[in-house]
């Protein structure tokens, strides 16, 4: 296809052509169907000068799990055609310099999208040029590309538009070797809209016409016949089919139905129809067909429907039968179902039974995604299978599957299944209010089908989790009776498998209910959840399925109440065995607990790991929350570029969801750590408290930060109001007593009562010590640092041993954290005569790592554990080149000559980074 009019796009990429050491680059060519992206991609690939690997996708790929990445792996030389992100990344490392072209990425199946996204994120330091074409469709991968390309260093987004009138004139001149002007040009532009694919079809038709009246006359005549854009391909198709031989016609119909076939498959289709084989030359002469590395397909997607419309029902039905015989597996069943849809009732029933049999086998293997695809096929023959379609998607933990077929669900007959399906679609599309409203209009008691009752329960669980994530209250009263309904149904259900599932769901609903009662104190939720422990422990199935969820949910409530030691232990045990939506909350909560405990390396590792998990899963609704928490440690260490980038993913509007609240909390701690700006921090934290999110973000103790900040700003009334809110919290007794004593000390100081101020500061220190003594790993050390700073600045602090000890401990903690600005500010408060002793408390490891970024600290500690670059790459799921890059930076910054020397320097009490051993399958985040 001509590149007329595309020079501007090539010039936009001219400065980005790869060099051997340039690393990865993504050129994303986005535009409407038929706008000429493929020709532009081919030219960009040619100019890259690299070996090319081209994966050309079409709609049928979207229905075949892992087909896209398997094709890519095979083309890269992976004999096993491994379909995992880990294996594909290693294959790319071995491939060397290569240009990977993904054509029509919107047709990638969901699993391939996720795998390709994981690889794209990690290929930054590989000599790989990615050229990806797509329409403007929203998909998981394309959402990820939009996120990735916010960083100019990662690539370019090129929006490809149709050709203008002068460009159409130039295109036709180049193809027909004649000037095309005036009315003929205007008609050609009008009927093609400037779309190169339609212009190519128009030119092909001129050539096929034989030029008997001259090419310009033929062009004008064809333009008049086409009338509009969709008519160009239709006229082309009609002309071809009207004159085609029976074998060519049959082959075109089969290709239109199948999307792509190999030459052997086309031969088998012809054989089953009693026809001679259509020659590839004959098919190519129609200008409707292209050959690809993997087979033969219709050149333009709109031509597929045009062929089927022209062919008629009988011809299409015959082709469906032939395809069902010629193909194998699920593709064959797909065509068998299509053929049976117009057949007699007996044949419909036979094929429907075949679908049901395969569906049962998929369930037996717990392959719910396959179950969803089979049930979706079966609905065409038996609408009652719609309940299996909805339930399979929810059982798979993939409600997004239903969002993709929202129109099909809308077309179902009114039923409980349809209502639940539409509610899930609304929730997945972000319309939380409408989704919940649909569920509230349903009542579980009259539901007669156990499968529909289970679908309804899944829908309620999805709404509850989104309620927690988005901090939108969900009234639990309408769902309070659901547990009893599920248990009653289990008692009369004849299917043993359904009985077990109903019982598990009943118990799961009990676990979920406390999370819905936003008005109840955390201690109430803890009591309800602890009461469920004996019931779950007594049933092996419930223990297997629900035990981790109970432990994790209980850990959340314990953390909200300040029982952080028990919370941390429970969440650590449960985090890797729960559903993704709960895992997000557990891991982020663990990161916040570690941050407040002064274990910033662990906090950073946990938050980064969770961010990577969210990004890898393309869990769009979790990105912002994960970014906000992952920014916490870098922000407080003064890593401005990383912190600004992470916090920049969220617009600073009103606090409406948990991500907004975490954004404010991170920004507040940043002001305290870097600038000592208590007043600015208080203003940010007020927003969190005003919307009632302090508890679910583990920010109850920030109430004391509000008090001190408002006093610093001269607003004592606001400080007293903040103290009153703090006092009303249901929180661990020592921690709350500390916070109130600290707040009272600050207020007393503001009132000039320095005697009371000194007493309250001492009491606050005692309460903090008592809290930390119960579980040293979960002590609130950052609040001890805040307390030490306030106490040391107070008039009565001079010569107070307790204050001096607390200050010295705080300086050591902040030094170990890598909080240089905060540490230096507190160190300046240490009396001159005590500074040498304070310096001795600084650990060699803390001093050594102080010059490194959070990412480099993590890598340095892994080197200290004796890991090689390959082991680090395997453990963190990055390329070996990325591991080498970070290790090199670490050694250079520290002025060390070897890994052995680094290990030796770290031997003096090097801290561990939980969760980053070589057995993990997690990754570093976006950058």
Q: What does it look like?
A:
65% of the residues lie in helices and 4% in strands. The chain has a five-stranded parallel sheet, sandwiched between helices. It has a three-stranded antiparallel sheet with strand order 6-8-7. The longest helix has 21 residues, at 450-470. The two termini are 37 Å apart. Mean pLDDT is 87; it is low at 910-927.
Largest sheet: 5 strands, parallel
The low-pLDDT segments are 910-927
**Proportion of helical residues:** 55-70%
Overall geometry: globular
Proportion in β-strands: under 5%
The whole-angstrom Rg is 32 Å
Order of strands across the widest beta sheet? Answer: 2-3-4-1-5
Secondary structural class: mainly alpha
Discrete helix count: 50
Q: Could you give the count of β-strands?
A: 8
Distance between the termini: 37 Å
Instruction: Let me know the average pLDDT.
Output: 87
Provide tags for this entry.
927 residues, mainly alpha, three-stranded antiparallel beta sheet, 50 helices, disordered C terminus
Summarize the structure.
This protein is mainly alpha-helical and 927 residues long. The protein is built from 50 helices and eight strands.
């Amino acid at each position: 296809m001509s590149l007329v009019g595309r020079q501007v796009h090539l010039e936009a990429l001219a400065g980005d052509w790869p060099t051997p050491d340039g690393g990865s680059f993504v050129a994303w060519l986005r535009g409407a169907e038929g706008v000429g992206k493929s020709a532009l991609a081919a030219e960009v690939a040619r100019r890259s000068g690299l070996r090319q690997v081209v994966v050309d996708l079409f709609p049928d790929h979207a229905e075949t799990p892992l087909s896209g990445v398997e094709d890519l792996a095979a083309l890269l030389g992976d004999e096993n055609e491994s379909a995992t992100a880990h294996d594909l990344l290693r294959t790319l490392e071995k491939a060397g310099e290569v240009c990977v072209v993904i054509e029509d990425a919107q047709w990638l199946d969901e699993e391939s999208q996720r795998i390709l996204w994981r690889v794209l994120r990690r290929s930054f330091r590989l000599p790989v040029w990615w050229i990806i074409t797509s329409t403007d469709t929203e998909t998981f991968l394309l959402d990820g590309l939009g996120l990735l390309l916010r960083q100019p260093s990662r690539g370019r987004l090129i929006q490809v538009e149709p050709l203008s009138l002068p460009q159409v004139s130039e295109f036709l001149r180049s193809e027909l070797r004649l000037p095309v002007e005036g009315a003929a040009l205007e008609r050609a532009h009008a009927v093609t809209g400037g779309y190169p694919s339609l212009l190519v079809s128009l030119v092909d038709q001129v050539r096929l016409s034989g030029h008997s009246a001259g090419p310009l006359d033929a062009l004008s005549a064809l333009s008049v016949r086409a009338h509009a854009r969709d008519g160009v391909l239709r006229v082309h198709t009609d002309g071809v089919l009207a004159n085609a031989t029976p074998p060519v016609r049959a082959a075109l119909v089969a290709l239109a139905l199948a999307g792509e076939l190999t030459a052997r498959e086309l031969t088998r289709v012809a054989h089953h129809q009693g026809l001679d084989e259509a020659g590839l030359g004959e098919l190519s002469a129609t200008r409707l067909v292209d050959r690809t590395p993997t087979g033969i397909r219709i050149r333009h997607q709109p031509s597929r429907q045009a062929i089927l419309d022209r062919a008629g029902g009988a011809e299409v039905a015959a082709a469906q039968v032939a395809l069902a015989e010629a193909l194998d597996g699920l593709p064959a069943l797909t065509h068998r179902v299509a053929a049976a849809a117009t057949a007699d009732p007996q044949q419909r029933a036979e094929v429907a039974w075949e679908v049901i049999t395969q569906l049962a086998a998929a369930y037996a293997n717990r392959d719910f995604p396959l179950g969803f695809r089979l049930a979706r096929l079966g609905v065409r023959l038996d609408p009652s299978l719609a309940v299996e379609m909805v339930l399979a998607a929810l059982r798979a933990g993939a409600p997004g599957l239903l969002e993709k077929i929202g129109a099909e669900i809308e077309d179902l007959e009114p039923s409980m299944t349809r209502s639940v399906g539409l509610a899930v679609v609304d929730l997945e599309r972000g319309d939380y209010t409408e989704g919940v409203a649909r569920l509230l209009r349903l009542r579980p008691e009259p539901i007669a089908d156990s499968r529909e009752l289970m679908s309804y329960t899944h829908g309620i669980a999805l709404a509850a989790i989104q309620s927690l994530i988005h901090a939108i209250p969900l009234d639990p009263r309408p769902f309070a009776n659901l547990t009893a309904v599920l248990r009653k149904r289990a008692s009369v259900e004849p299917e043993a498998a359904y009985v077990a599932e109903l019982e598990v769901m009943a118990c799961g609903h009990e676990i979920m209910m406390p999370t819905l009662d936003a008005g109840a104190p955390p201690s109430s939720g803890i009591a309800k959840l602890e009461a469920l422990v004996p019931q779950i422990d007594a049933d092996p199935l419930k223990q297997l399925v629900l035990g981790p969820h109970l432990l994790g949910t209980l850990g959340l409530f314990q953390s909200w109440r300040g029982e952080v030691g028990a919370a941390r232990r429970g969440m650590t045990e449960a985090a890797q065995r729960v559903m993704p939506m709960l895992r997000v909350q557990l891991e982020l909560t663990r990161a916040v607990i570690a941050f407040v405990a002064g274990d910033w390396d662990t906090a950073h590792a946990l938050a980064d790991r969770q961010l990577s998990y969210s990004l890898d899963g393309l869990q769009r609704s979790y990105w912002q929350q994960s970014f906000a928490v992952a920014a916490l440690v870098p922000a407080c260490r003064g890593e401005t570029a990383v912190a600004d980038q992470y916090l920049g993913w969220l617009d600073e509007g009103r606090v409406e969801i948990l991500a907004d609240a975490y954004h404010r909390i991170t920004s507040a701690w940043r002001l305290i750590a870097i600038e000592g700006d208590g007043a600015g921090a208080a203003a940010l934290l007020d927003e969190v408290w005003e919307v009632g999110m302090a508890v679910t973000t583990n920010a109850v103790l920030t109430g004391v930060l509000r008090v001190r900040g408002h006093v610093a700003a001269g607003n004592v009334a606001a400080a007293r109001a903040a103290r009153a809110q703090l006092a009303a919290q249901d929180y661990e007794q020592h921690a709350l007593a500390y916070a109130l004593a600290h707040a009272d000390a600050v207020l007393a100081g503001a009132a000039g009562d320095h005697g009371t101020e000194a007493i309250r500061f001492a009491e606050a220190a005692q309460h903090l010590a008592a809290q930390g003594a119960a579980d040293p790993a979960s002590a609130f050390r950052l609040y001890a640092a805040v307390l030490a700073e306030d106490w040391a600045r107070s008039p009565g602090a001079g010569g107070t041993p307790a204050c001096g000890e607390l200050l010295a401990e705080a300086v050591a903690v902040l030094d170990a954290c890598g909080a240089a600005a905060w540490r230096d500010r507190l160190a300046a408060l240490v009396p001159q005569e005590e500074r040498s002793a304070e310096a001795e408390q600084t650990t060699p490891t803390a001093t050594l790592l102080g010059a490194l970024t959070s990412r480099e600290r993590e890598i340095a500690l892994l080197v200290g554990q004796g890991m090689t670059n390959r082991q680090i790459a395997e453990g963190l799921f990055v390329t070996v080149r990325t591991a080498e890059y970070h290790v090199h930076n670490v050694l250079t910054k520290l002025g060390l000559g070897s890994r052995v020397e680094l290990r030796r320097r770290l031997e003096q009490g090097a801290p561990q980074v939980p969760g980053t051993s070589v057995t993990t399958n997690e990754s570093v985040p976006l950058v």
